Amino acid sequence: MSFVQRLRTAQHEFASRVCVGLDPIPERLPAPYADYRTDPIALAAFCVAIIEATAPHCCAYKPNLAFFEAHGAAGYAALESVIAAIPDTHLCIADAKRGDIGHTARFYARGLFDHLGADAITAAPYMGRDSILPFLRTAERGVFVLTRTSNAGSADLQECPVDAKGDLPREPVYQRIARLVQRWSAHPESQGDAGLVVGATAPEALAELREVCPTLPFLVPGVGAQGGDARAAVNAAVTEDGLILVNSSRSILYAHDGPNFAEAAAEAAAELQGALG
Question: Does residue 62 have an active-site annotation?
Answer without folding.
Answer: no
